[in-house]
Acyl-CoA dehydrogenase
Amino acid sequence: MPVQFDPAPAVVDLVRRTEALVADVALPAETAHRGSAHDAPEELRRTLQEAARRAGVFAPHADTRFGGLGLDLRDRAPVFEAAGYSLFGPLALNCAAPDEGNMHLLERVASDAQQQRYLRPLVSGETRSCFAMTEPAPGAGSDPRALTTTARRTSAGWLLNGHKWFITGARGAAFAIVMARTSGEPGSPGGATMFLVDTDTPGLRHVRDLDCLDESMFGGHAELLLTDVEVGEDAVLGEVDRGFEHAQVRLGPARLTHCMRWLGTARRAADVAADRALTRQAFGARLGDLGMVQQHLADNEIDIEASRALVLRACWDLDTGAPAAQITSITKTFVAEAVNRVVDRSLQVCGALGISGDAPLARLYREVRPFRIYDGPSETHRWAIARRVLRAAERREGTRADGVHP
Amino acid sequence: MPVQFDPAPAVVDLVRRTEALVADVALPAETAHRGSAHDAPEELRRTLQEAARRAGVFAPHADTRFGGLGLDLRDRAPVFEAAGYSLFGPLALNCAAPDEGNMHLLERVASDAQQQRYLRPLVSGETRSCFAMTEPAPGAGSDPRALTTTARRTSAGWLLNGHKWFITGARGAAFAIVMARTSGEPGSPGGATMFLVDTDTPGLRHVRDLDCLDESMFGGHAELLLTDVEVGEDAVLGEVDRGFEHAQVRLGPARLTHCMRWLGTARRAADVAADRALTRQAFGARLGDLGMVQQHLADNEIDIEASRALVLRACWDLDTGAPAAQITSITKTFVAEAVNRVVDRSLQVCGALGISGDAPLARLYREVRPFRIYDGPSETHRWAIARRVLRAAERREGTRADGVHP
Amino acid sequence: MPVQFDPAPAVVDLVRRTEALVADVALPAETAHRGSAHDAPEELRRTLQEAARRAGVFAPHADTRFGGLGLDLRDRAPVFEAAGYSLFGPLALNCAAPDEGNMHLLERVASDAQQQRYLRPLVSGETRSCFAMTEPAPGAGSDPRALTTTARRTSAGWLLNGHKWFITGARGAAFAIVMARTSGEPGSPGGATMFLVDTDTPGLRHVRDLDCLDESMFGGHAELLLTDVEVGEDAVLGEVDRGFEHAQVRLGPARLTHCMRWLGTARRAADVAADRALTRQAFGARLGDLGMVQQHLADNEIDIEASRALVLRACWDLDTGAPAAQITSITKTFVAEAVNRVVDRSLQVCGALGISGDAPLARLYREVRPFRIYDGPSETHRWAIARRVLRAAERREGTRADGVHP
Amino acid sequence: MPVQFDPAPAVVDLVRRTEALVADVALPAETAHRGSAHDAPEELRRTLQEAARRAGVFAPHADTRFGGLGLDLRDRAPVFEAAGYSLFGPLALNCAAPDEGNMHLLERVASDAQQQRYLRPLVSGETRSCFAMTEPAPGAGSDPRALTTTARRTSAGWLLNGHKWFITGARGAAFAIVMARTSGEPGSPGGATMFLVDTDTPGLRHVRDLDCLDESMFGGHAELLLTDVEVGEDAVLGEVDRGFEHAQVRLGPARLTHCMRWLGTARRAADVAADRALTRQAFGARLGDLGMVQQHLADNEIDIEASRALVLRACWDLDTGAPAAQITSITKTFVAEAVNRVVDRSLQVCGALGISGDAPLARLYREVRPFRIYDGPSETHRWAIARRVLRAAERREGTRADGVHP
């Protein structure tokens, strides 16, 4: 079967309906809230999701068993990009981080009972969730092995203690997936376990919402404290001591869906810049007739098309079960940087207007910067990529003459 | 006289005192206001400036005749950089934009009477001012010749009408320097005149403050409307129809002082990143022991030192009256981009902490982005630089054999 | 049909055989000639091509009617990349520029008689060809409309006069495809015609071979002079005055096949660097354990994977007849720059060894630089890309509310 | 004393005479040899240096005691840049690498007798020299501590054994400064000693000249073998076991003089590109009227001016004896990369002409690439820069409150 790129007509149709929803509902709502969802009311979320349900584009990624549209990753790509055109689009489709990644994780790792209790209402939009992994220094960050939160086995189940930080969507979430150390020491690569913890469990405290550069994620980023939080045996998600492994299940696709959504942001920024270049006059010419502006516009397209092509490539590997750690790292790193370049150039094309809140660029500029850090900073991915390159070189040694002139 | 770089001991002393003031007064105030001065109370300004006066570092750039310290541009460079280490430092020293540039302009172009009335209280910190040049599209922006605001001669003086936009420091300013067209059409290179307009003059309306990416400039950025604003003949600053020319007097030094202050911001960001790299552990090592982090730290130093060297070079040319249009364009373009790179890298080194308000990086990230647009976007400067290169090439033609192999 | 990426097993097999041929035959020959084919003997070409024929990988792109393997563009991609791993690989497979592009053109535009006379021996490797389009300044270069070579109709056919420059593969070619102006003036967009001219036609003079940065193209780059070259009516390739149009038939695929081959060069360079990083010690560590070296290795992978994904995307559009001008321009620009970055980084990783002829990097460094200029410099492509962006923005106007906050 | 930039009139005059010599003598000679000096005859060197002597610009850097003009580093900067405008200019002035650095070293470290025997004829141009430090892997390269060549004390003096590689100017040199290990093991930071070795000493064998990307250094880059080379006690340059320390004496200034000369190369490339942009037409406009070409021209100026400013800054520190390790590393890294960018852009502006030998760009492109590796690759310098940043951060700890929000 030769390489082929076009999605099925049903997916194309889904994309068109998502575009319409974004234009008619998500963008106006975003403008009304100046792009900030950190403090947005639950009412906003309900309204947006109801519109998406009516448009038939709700939960496109979730399994049909739980009420989703069941798209594989390749088909999600154009839909999520269309949703990401507005900062509020993914919220409308219920495919925003961290819920979307959590649904993926629960579909694959949770027990039936856990799926009924946690996954079903999450897919339907009845509840929200958070993923409580990262910790303040010197705990788990880019290096998850530094995990310091502990879960100690008790007669009744587990006792959790720890400090979590930068937990997206925590305020208002119904439950948290908490990563805690069940064996080993901070720094050791194993011994983590995931727990499903209702947020009203005694001892789980929302300390504060962080003041952040980005503000478009519903529920914000919070600091949580776990003090003798008791959970039952049935709170274990997956298997004990296999938390890091289970996290990988979530990570690969989550990286790609981040790419898809933020590609929509980039597309939006590039469109705004092109519109501006088309209409604004300077130095006796249309802005878009000036070579340096044209370079910005062209580089935007190059970055976007290369990103899209990489995303599809990585989706294909994940969908078909091919080894995909290298391609998802590559894709995440490239797309995160490309998206930032696109928004930066687009803002520059818009000049002072781009700095002001009269255009969306300043907001988008703030929103995309964290992408180079979230889900592994570029440096961590580059390190992982290079190590795989070196291992491949090691395998080549002995099996072939190298390409060096003798 | 050979090239030499070290400032006089008195200047070094001034730098040390400025650093102390910044550490003791400006940084704490900045932290208390989360780096935002758009809505800061007048009280804050008074307090900061009183501290600077006591430290003997107030108004270092202003002429001694008006109460300043009378530093030339070369000596200002390290002092302003030290002040810029805090977003609130320049405000404390009364050397923030736009007042600092306006003082420079008034020193050179204003009449004695105008200097007494407008310059003296501005230098002393009694008043603030703004420079009302830019207009909403399709008016004056990167291309000042698009100026649409008009001043029509009346029997009593002048009648001003127009729409101004992105006027920094307008809210609370005692007067505005208004650029208006007195002859020619929008697009024509001549025919502009500057007017000194008290902000309580009837017809001058503060429409709104813009919501902006940056928020550290006291008084914010405003939209102004001028409707039949009447001013007398004595409101003309400099000569009629020579407004663009007079603006050049302001622009060259203003570009450099922007560079100096924002270099301080870059230095701050680089220090925060280095401190973090020193203490944070990841992957079994100090962050600062990882090569990709080292690269960020090193590139920060390279950008900062190259910026400093260029600034001094450009200051020398302006101080000695050498032709400096090319070197100031080069310096402004390089430094604006270098400062952005430094802050971006520093934020990246700090990871999620850098995204959060728990470190100053996210704030600095927002503050430096506009520098690539303010005082002429990089593209406009590059265009001007290239045209001078081509004119130089034209002059070479005929006067020498070129470097091309025959 | 969902997006899919994997080539058919027969293509995978072809790639493996090409890799073996490159390792066993092409790389040793390349080393023996130090990567330079400008002055290589015809004997070398015969030997390489005979080996490719035996390996069953000869002329993979040519139509089966003429003795090729008939691969579409998507299937060519991995085969050509494998061939390009050695500078002499494409020559072996008879898929090097300019012959490969000329075959494509003749397949689509030539008459049956012309195909028998010119295409058949070209595909079989019996002859070589050149494409005589570019001219010395002020003639046709990045701007083909500047074409100055003329063809004047005579009673017997056409009389060609002109000066051609940088004509790849001209020395030793059996025929040239000459672009000449048959109407209009230099600068006008129409009026060009292509002519098939035997290189032994009187009046067609090979003036000299150019001394060039790159040296791996068989037959070098030549300067040609056409003085009253007489050809018959049957020399017209395609239709009179539609030469620019026909050139487009050649250009799209030719750009992609350039990308494929040079991606092989990049892959080679990256492998050499990885091998070096694996074995060389410095500062008490393996070179590959140093973060800045890891960054180079990782960025190489990112550039290569993004390039591959873009190439496949563009091939898909060309293969399926979708509008592909934008995606081929984007792909050519990105890949040309990515390939240069990869080779540059790889050379840097190898240090002084990379500068010396003891490794292939210095040679590869010379060979890939022209790719950013050949087939349209990056600037010309960016200009074309931006104009399409602006036209798309124009179409959007009126049909939808833009993304700008009101 | 305030910062000041202009050189004394005598230096300006020297620059003018150097420019004239370069235009009249060096550039024509360079063109005649196509920029390659690896195989150039001794006669060429004699002729060029005789012309420089007549012009009064010979050996501007050498101490007046030995026949030089005695310029300090700041005054050398513009003179060396002027010389570097031609690849053969530094050879003419006898200020090319490695002789120029060796003169500097001998002036500071050699005994009187050594100065009379080796330095005097080197300054006068009677002899040439080489600096034999680097070794093939796994020996001394970017990491000099890997030094494997040994010197063993004998009754009569010393016995040297080792393998040297990439020894610039070795063919035809009268003597070599050989770095050999006199104590410690490869990898240890001490125990190196420098020896002055006449190249006709038995056992010192010139194995071969390396085939290299760059070819403008007179005498090329060679591989040397030392087999039981006997030298007397008086061959020790400086003190035993202090070779690495002495090498530092050479390195700081040598890095800067490399920068100066290669800045001349960059200036040349930028001029060629500007000339081309002035005259070449494309797409109905002068090349220089196209924005993307203007961007290249502007970025060239920015890179050159930033480089010049950094070089002067670093010269000032070295001339005045201030700590200069950080600023010379910064300057070397920035300038090496800037020079490469300038030449790359200039070549791009010239299009296919730039690829061909009909313009000097292809040659310059080859010549400047090694600068990012010679005298320490950029990565090694960045590593050293970062370590100094971290040490400075360490010193700050405890002495001041940091800039991080509490």
Summary: The domain at 129-241 of chain C is CATH 2.40.110.10 (Butyryl-CoA Dehydrogenase, subunit A; domain 2).
